[in-house]
Amino acid sequence: MEPCLSVVIPVYNERATIDEVLAKVLAQPATREVLVVDDASTDGTREHLAGWRDPRVRVLFQPFNLGKGAALRRGFEAATSPFVIVQDADLEYDPTDFGLLLGPLLDGRADVVFGSRFISGGAHRVLYYWHSVGNRLLTTASNIATNLNLTDMETCYKAFRREVIQSVDLREDRFGFEPEVTAKIAAAGWRVYEVGVSYHGRTYAEGKKIGWRDGVRALYCVARYSPPGRALQHRVNLIAEAGLPSGPRSQPGAVPASSPGVGPAAVPAAVDPALNEVQWLADLIEPWLGSRVVVLGEAASALSGALGARFGDRLDLRAAAGLDDLIDRGRPDTFVLVSLLEHDRDATATLRRLRSRLAPGGRIVLLVRSGGLLGRGQGFDRPGLRRSLAAAELRPEVLRPVPLLRPAAGGRYDRTIVPVLRTLDERLALPVGQSLFCVASPASVPVPVDEKEDVVVLP
């Protein structure tokens, strides 16, 4: 067999097994290149991989821990061989099965091949019963949503024609990759085959990482990315858009000319700092404020008024029309951006510029419109915001949804609905919302993105 395969290996803290995995992968006749994506390992894997010298091995380093899905995206983008396969770094899957997976692809019968752990006649290590039940439940849910008849949707072994996987717009950063890629492959009408593969599962003591939260997320991804789920989300977005309170709005993606650096300047002065939404936002932001604060974006003047009333002269507080207004005015230790970043043509460039203006030890606090479930479809989903932060070398200390629209409406909505939403959010930590609240700081060392999150969210 001629070498024809790009093997993408996402790696996080696999120092004990990575050498053996690479040796087995490189020993396969089909292997043409190996793309190892280190997801900011902390056990010495990162440093060890830097020493690999095999010309077929390319090592890509993530700036900090972004998740398996994000690592796979980067590997897929860098692949150059006719076919691409996913290989875990933990020895649960055997690279000698590459030939089985490539068969339908080489014959021209398939565009995608899944390696099923449940139809193989080979030896399997006997482990967790409830994991197998969960796998079958998720596969059944996926099959109902996609009209495929897979036996193992959650399998690691998925092989693709390179042009197929590089055409799929993938968004999930963690283990949600499996149901997402399955739904999008099915929706695009690609030919899917399944072959049996061997499986040697490991225990949590041996380093297994997937947990029950990932199973919940997988069910959410099945619903979100399937055709019925996308249709439902479109309807929810239309309802949310129609139900927005009255007030001035920017067109999605537009950057008003009056704001030279970024986004809209500020909403009219008629926005009252005493509004419940303004006070709610001020309460969210207050614990993260330094001593020199710049507020940018919608309701900047109202939010500045609310914060100024609380802190008085103890806080050096300014509302700016755009980043260009900050030149030669010192370096703040806190930037607050309200409903602003989603209007920017290049959010990453703006975040980088803010980071460069930030005083040492400072933070950037963001309220951005959500593009996920219950959002309006024009903003960020959680993985997208994390990618923009990572590209700007920022790490999220908090990243969670909030049922805030934007503090600019007033009227009956602010008097009656906002207090109810706030109470629900504070007591139940609502997993969805119209906006995302984020606190980010410069990433001086690799850290897991979820290290200090308030809640487990389903954006």
Write a concise synopsis of the structure shown.
The chain is an alpha/beta fold. It has two domains: 5-225, Spore Coat Polysaccharide Biosynthesis Protein SpsA, Chain A (Alpha-Beta Complex); 246-452, 3-Layer(aba) Sandwich (Rossmann fold).
Keywords summarizing the entry:
14 helices, 459 residues, alpha/beta, elongated, 7-stranded mixed beta sheet, 6-stranded mixed beta sheet, Spore Coat Polysaccharide Biosynthesis Protein SpsA, Chain A, Rossmann fold
Give an overview in words.
The protein has about 450 residues and is an alpha/beta fold. The chain folds into two domains: about 5-225, Alpha-Beta Complex (Spore Coat Polysaccharide Biosynthesis Protein SpsA, Chain A), CATH 3.90.550.10; about 245-450, Vaccinia Virus protein VP39 (Rossmann fold), CATH 3.40.50.150. About 35% of the residues lie in helices and about 15% in strands. The protein starts with a strand and ends in a 17-residue tail after the last strand. Residues about 240-270, about 375 and about 445-459 have low confidence and may be disordered.
Strand content bin: 15-25%
What's the helix count? Answer: 14
CATH superfamily of the largest domain: Spore Coat Polysaccharide Biosynthesis Protein SpsA, Chain A
CATH topology of the largest domain: Spore Coat Polysaccharide Biosynthesis Protein SpsA, Chain A
Structural topology:
Elements: E1 5-11, H1 18-26, E2 31-38, H2 45-49, E3 57-61, H3 68-78, E4 83-86, H4 98-106, E5 112-116, H5 129-146, E6 158-161, H6 162-165, H7 177-188, E7 192-196, H8 212-225, H9 227-242, H10 276-285, E8 292-297, H11 300-311, E9 316-320, E10 334-338, H12 347-357, E11 363-369, H13 382-391, E12 394-402, H14 411-428, E13 435-442
Parallel strand pairs: 1-2, 1-4, 2-3, 5-7, 8-9, 8-10, 10-11
Antiparallel strand pairs: 4-6, 5-6, 11-13, 12-13
Helix pairs in contact: 5-7, 5-8, 7-8, 8-9, 10-11
